[in-house]
Fold this sequence. Notes:
Layout: E1 7-11, H1 21-25, E2 31-34, E3 39-40, E4 62-67, H2 68-78, H3 80-88, E5 97-101, E6 105-109
Antiparallel strand pairs: 1-2, 1-6, 3-4, 4-5
Amino acid sequence: MHNTVTGLIEIIKTPHGTWPLNIREEWVDITLRCYPNSTRLHQCFTARGELNEKAHENPNPWGVIVPQDLAMNVLERERPFAFTYWVSQGFPERDKNFFFRMDEVRLIRGVTPPTMTLVTEEMDGQLYR
Length: 129
């Protein structure tokens, strides 16, 4: 896991997830600091309570990781209702993060977007056709 929070994102779309819709909608138009590298949900080992928990079409989406404590500080200032809800659910948890899918955010600065690698048959180990 990265140890420096140098990225900046804006939430542009209601995050997927199983949390109440009105609470998830509160994230839209909020700017958050995040770790600099995009990642896959399955690689996000410290994301208990990620907003995308269980309810997305892609079982392993790309996204960004936002420390819960930093996100909660912003919510407390900008969206007190949502902040109160998250606190009632036990957030923030120490050293835990929220995960936002790439289609839910606008990268402002300091975030490396995911890259695609074309895998050929040879690279996939299928040398014989």
